[in-house]
Amino acid sequence: MAEGFSHATELSVRFAETDAQGIAHNASYLVWYEVARVDYLARYAGGYKLIRERGIEALTTETHVRYLGAVYFDDRLRINVRVSDLRGARFRFDYLIERVNDDHAEPVADGWTLHATVDRATLRPTRLPDWLREAIERAESA
Amino acid sequence: MAEGFSHATELSVRFAETDAQGIAHNASYLVWYEVARVDYLARYAGGYKLIRERGIEALTTETHVRYLGAVYFDDRLRINVRVSDLRGARFRFDYLIERVNDDHAEPVADGWTLHATVDRATLRPTRLPDWLREAIERAESA
Amino acid sequence: MAEGFSHATELSVRFAETDAQGIAHNASYLVWYEVARVDYLARYAGGYKLIRERGIEALTTETHVRYLGAVYFDDRLRINVRVSDLRGARFRFDYLIERVNDDHAEPVADGWTLHATVDRATLRPTRLPDWLREAIERAESA
Amino acid sequence: MAEGFSHATELSVRFAETDAQGIAHNASYLVWYEVARVDYLARYAGGYKLIRERGIEALTTETHVRYLGAVYFDDRLRINVRVSDLRGARFRFDYLIERVNDDHAEPVADGWTLHATVDRATLRPTRLPDWLREAIERAESA
User: Fold this and answer.
1) B27-61: string of b/e by CB count within 10 Å (b at 16+)?
2) Chain C contact for D74 (CB, 8 A cutoff)
3) Across the interface, do C20 and D19 touch by the CB < 8 Å criterion?
């Protein structure tokens, strides 16, 4: 895991995620972000399914990706992730994507996403519930 | 529109739909099938939204694609479609995908999909309602 | 077309672009950006294919999306686009996505992407060729 | 691994792979097939990259999926795969997709894909090279 991050998920670039430039398509990175977020929540906060079952939906309100170098089919990637801000109904994830080989890791992209929690029934903004905020704060202070 | 078909939808191959072989990815064709189905239902049966609002969900139970030739970024495609079978809770769409140019159309794929209608609340199989069956039969006998 | 933009492309949200939240998935917006860019280049600069044939590849180096409201299956969207910066080997597109109905347009997302031109053979950064820069400048000053 | 299959790959359903019906989209299954094929070739035949480096491209010429039951976000799936036919320039993969839980596996889809090998330079059909055919035959007779 990269320094300053609290969780990392590994995956291999799928052939379907490449495009005719011969590299991974720029939209694939948002899917990888999501895979890492889901994994983070599963590890620290009981999982995205639990959050939804408790009546909360987390919407994505902003996404940002900086592509630092081309990524190819079958590359092994490590998606480093942390929650860097958490207040009221909003929280932010930061990401660093690295290509990993036997002995080293090379940054290939970074960025962040913003999210807002809403009540599933009314779709109105709702504060992150205490149990979820506390679970994330524990993860980030570890 | 190709002979024997009752509806056709045109679209251009998106860059995101290609892969590192330089051609459209094999899964993209199922999305194009769907675009043509949605368009067919909008034209003849009040639209997919109306069907769902009336408490019916149409599940996809089988898909088949035969790839006849490579398809490239920005190719202009015509997705020909017809309903070829319709009984009880099941119906079948047939497809012929052509690449169209100024003066001719060249087949690049064909296939079919099977669907089953279920009650949205119970998810139990439910007969295609008469108004929908009749709308489709009118379209196909025109 | 929204004020301040030089081109707009319309499309309908595909069912495949939605997710289990019942809304369009956040990665779909990057694909719509791309559809609008391709359309812009086709109209003003001879098309993306021509650019590639002339030995230039345009890489995406940064993407940003701000999601202003949920977008649903079959929503009609207008992707407004303009080139807002153009220097050396780098250029920037700005976007405004609106949901359009009979009589009005409602903003649902905005953002921007950065791109760099490279020589296709060497993959080294290469200045935007004059013919392409001039075509874009003409489009933007119209 | 299911009886009669020579390889299996596990994955979890991504949120991006679901649609507004609340289940995995029908096109996602073709991507999972591909993930399993790539994994099969990596294990038994030196990998898809090696095959391409040796001047061979494998095209997908036919795909078939039978959806046996709904698949949901985060479901754990096992994609069982085998090569069931192999002659000249053509080969066929069979698939069985199971949802796996602690103590049992439930079939959720099955199907097959056909492929043809071509020379990367000329794109003409070319017999599967002996080393690749023998590697696959060893895998399947094990």
Assistant:
1) bbbbbbbbbbbbbbbbebbebbeebeeeebbbbbb
2) no
3) yes
